[in-house]
Design goal:
Pfam families: Sigma70_r2, Sigma70_r4_2. The chain has 210 residues and is mainly α. It is 70% helix and 0% strand. It has helices at 4-12, 16-38, 41-57, 70-82, 84-96, 108-128, 133-144, 149-156, 160-189.
């Protein structure tokens, strides 16, 4: 199979077929990253188009990391997802020139999968919300994307040592948060006191009335 470097070299000469092969190869991975970043399926679908439009526009400035362009594509996805509403407005005119895909039936299983995916992403976002943005982005690269620390440095455009220090700090903070969640669950799942029964009748201390 032709590696990314060769396809990218052909793209530099304007070979749209080679660039289309790169799109097919990496679009799902970029979509997954954008979904995790935005928490919204429709926004992630739009951002994938923006990412590859940006990649085509900036193709002459890119040097593949190893045999893959994916770390560089993740870097573009990170940038456009930071403020995706503004990015989408800027690229809407370009997207309008691209013929829309054939509509696909929205079957019930696909709807359930979409809702479930968004729910899982929302749960992850709650755990990451307490991190500083810079630390969170390192976690996303190394955990969500499964990148090595060196690849994450390429994606984020920062030194390798910075990746290591931010990842260690995020790990400590996330561990504290998870332990707090577990402690809260233990308290909520513990034995509950029985609800009070009906009040006993008051004892009478005086003489009975005949």
């Amino acid at each position: 199979m032709t590696d990314d470097r060769e396809l990218w070299a052909r793209s530099l000469d304007g070979d749209t077929t080679a660039f289309g092969t790169l799109f097919e190869r990496h679009a799902d991975a970029v979509f997954g990253y954008c979904l995790r970043r935005t928490g919204a399926w429709s926004a992630a679908e739009d951002l994938v188009s923006v990412v590859f439009l940006e990649a085509w526009r900036r193709r002459r400035a890119m040097v593949p990391y190893g045999a893959s362009v994916l770390p560089w594509l993740y870097g573009i996805a990170l940038g456009v997802s930071r403020n995706h509403h503004r990015s989408l407005r800027r690229h809407r005119a370009a997207l309008d020139r691209v013929p829309p895909p054939e509509p696909a039936a929205d079957h019930a299983d696909a709807v359930v999968e979409r809702v479930d995916a968004e729910r899982r992403v929302a749960a992850v976002h709650r755990h990451l919300a307490g991190l500083a943005r810079r630390d969170r982005e390192v976690v996303e690269a190394c955990v969500w994307l499964g990148q090595t620390q060196a690849e994450a440095a390429v994606t984020l455009g920062i030194p390798l040592g910075t990746v290591k220090s931010r990842l260690a700090r995020a790990h400590r903070q996330l561990r504290t948060g998870v332990l707090a969640d577990l402690a809260m669950e233990d308290r909520s799942d513990g034995p509950q006191s029985a609800p009070p029964g009906p009040a006993a009748p008051a004892r009478r201390t005086g003489p009975r009335t005949p």
